[in-house]
Amino acid sequence: MFTLRTAAVWNRVCQKCQCLTKNKIVQLPWRPLHTSSFHLNLESSQNGSNHIMIQGKSFDRDDLTTLTPKIISKVGKDLHNLKYHPICLIKEQIRDFFYRRFVTFRGNPIFSVYDNLNPIVSVEQNFDSVLVPGHHVSRKKQENYYLNKDTILRTHTSAHQYDLIKSGLDAFLVVGDVYRRDTVDSSHYPVFHQMEGVRLYHQHELFKDCNDPESLDLFEIGKKTPVKQEYHTLEAVKLVEFQLKQTLTELMEHLFGKDIETKWVDVYFPFTHPSWELEIKFQGEWLEVLGSGIMEQQILNRAGATNKIGYAFGLGLERLAMILFNIPDIRLFWSEDDRFLSQFRTDNPFSIKFQPFSKYPLLRNDISFWCPPGYQPNDFYDIVRSVGGDLVEQVTLVDEFVHPKTQRLSHCYRIDYRHMEKTLTKSEVSQLHWKIANVAEDELRIEVRKN
To answer: What's the sign of the alpha-carbon dihedral 41, 44, 50, 53?
Structure first.
């Protein structure tokens, strides 16, 4: 919910292709392509059928379908539920904080946790239920993994917010895998994990510790201002804001220690107002770790919670794990290498600092091509991910220009290849690079620049 973002600038060439200067045609040595070692066939798996099979269910394709076999293979992995996996360790630390911090008079946790909800949701659940406008960039085809016009892999755990509130819950955490098309680098991956938190208050609960609580109200008919919604009284908003900020500041202190520096930054989200991001100071730099705010009353009213006010927050588990455990590359979370996983088999996760088991050499190739009308970088990134998988460490747009006569747009991308567990050979990378170029030509109708 709170990490909506626009994507950054998200083929028969061999390793000698270099595009280092602007407005120059690159010489590309050509040779036959042998792809017998590659088993992915995007043409047949994406376009050869009118249906998508995922989790044993069939979904009709349409013009909005963007789901790839690579992404389908990630659904159901549930790293957040794998014991001793770093994503699971972070989840458990946050869950335990809320279990201890918020309890009933009998000592039972107030917050309930939902960490096994299906990531396949309706477009209405993912966007409409949390008031994302129809024209919002986060809905665009190039930003999401659509199964079809009605169904999507959730882009945030907020997709379940409406249903859980409607069921009568006032305090809950939702944890799960979320999916977004994005750039390729060490801190972005098309699948990552979020935790969503919601806390609602009745009038008597919010004002119970105030002097003369009977004189205070949650709601009024007023005007929307930078500090409150038109439906809420200022007293109610300030109390909820205090509860929100105190809780999340204490959560950061629980994870990173009492000495962690924090600050709140005013931001905009479609689903909360007012809204804030929380930043922590880590290694001398301020890092955004979560988004939050007072829930839009319209969301609560639609879900039947017309007499309640509340806050919501969302955070990325990978981001927190990378900071807490010093994990340098987001691809490592998907590694099955025991040299990685064994470092997290402990009951004291705060003692863990990831020790790199090796840093294998990087191999770098460039690809330069003319872009067809309507070209979207995330389409190319998806092909790179589908063909190259986790062997691709980063894709960078290094050159972009428009031909002065033809007005054709040219892009040059630098692709960094590095295996997490062994040394890649130049031959292996060259074959992989050629495969990416071929698939991009077939699927995107790009024209690789030959001379």
So the answer is: negative
- Radius of gyration (C-alpha) of the chain in whole angstroms: 24
Sign of the C-alpha dihedral, residues 12, 374, 192, 54? negative
Mean pLDDT by 10 residues, the chain (451 residues): 34 29 30 30 49 93 94 96 97 97 93 97 97 94 96 97 97 98 93 98 93 90 96 97 98 95 96 97 93 98 97 97 95 94 93 89 95 95 95 95 94 95 94 96 92 58
Task: Indicate the pTM of the whole model.
Answer: 0.84
Cα–Cα distance measured from residue 248 to residue 240, given in angstroms and rounded to the nearest whole number: 12
Q: Is there a contact between 444 and 387 (Cβ–Cβ < 8 Å)?
A: no
What whole-number distance in Å separates Cα of residue 402 and Cα of residue 370?
A: 9
| 230 φψ region: left (φ > 0), alpha (ψ -120 to 50), beta (else) | alpha
Contact 410, 370 (CB under 8 A): yes
Rounded-to-integer distance, Cα 261 and Cα 284, Å: 10
Query: What is the token pair recorded at 102?
Result: 């918020």
- Helix pair 317-325, 86-101: axis angle to 10 deg: 100
Cα–Cα distance measured from residue 414 to residue 417, given in angstroms and rounded to the nearest whole number: 10
